[in-house]
UniProtKB/TrEMBL annotation:
InterPro entries: Endonuclease_7, Endonuclease_7_sf, His-Me_finger_sf. SUPFAM superfamilies: His-Me finger endonucleases. Signal peptide: none annotated. It comes from the Bacteria. Transmembrane segments: none annotated. This is Recombination endonuclease VII.
Length: 175
């Protein structure tokens, strides 16, 4: 004879197995529930975002990084990178402009390996992306001084990746 707790656990496992074997029903049921409760869900999400703005922004940024293919990057690592580079673009050395219409520094990454390379301002990140896509002599020619600075930045990024990456607080320094 089963106890009440054992019967509940057996029933829970049985229902879980059924849901796993019938994902289309579960998706349909969730869609119906969301349609019926959409306003409540949105309201609760907005309340949570208002009471946790830093965490909400971190989750949004981490989601954007995952969409770009950058995996394993956290907001803490990003903040470490900002501290290491003194909140300036690693190519043009201009400080990041945070504010109502300003932007934080972009996380630059190697599109071939999806590894983070460093922090760049938006204009430098776009120029570097054009060079990566079209080459030096493509339709968007960059000034010579930018190409030299970008080359130095890429060399430094390669060296950092070879010695354990950029982040300072998440891993001990290599010996």
């Amino acid at each position: 004879m089963l106890t009440d707790d054992e019967r509940k656990e057996r029933n829970r496992l049985s229902c879980k197995k059924w849901r796993e074997n019938n994902p289309e029903y579960n998706r349909e049921r969730q869609a119906k529930w969301y349609a019926a409760n959409r306003n409540d869900v949105i309201s609760r999400a907005r309340q949570w975002q208002a009471s946790n703005p830093e965490r909400a922004n971190a989750l949004i940024r981490e989601g954007k990084w995952r969409k770009q293919g950058i995996t394993g990057m956290t907001m803490e690592q990003y903040q470490d990178m900002v501290m290491v580079c003194s909140a300036v673009c690693e190519i043009c050395q201009k400080p990041s402009i945070k504010g109502a219409k300003g932007r934080a520094l972009d996380l630059d990454h190697d599109h071939a390996t999806n590894e983070a390379r460093g922090l760049l301002c938006l204009p430098c990140n776009r120029k570097l992306g054009r060079i990566d896509k079209h080459g030096l002599f493509g339709p968007h020619k960059c000034p010579h001084n930018f190409v030299v600075k970008a080359f130095i930045y890429l060399l430094h990024a390669k060296v950092r990746q070879g010695v354990g990456g950029f982040w300072v607080s998440s891993a001990p320094a290599p010996q």
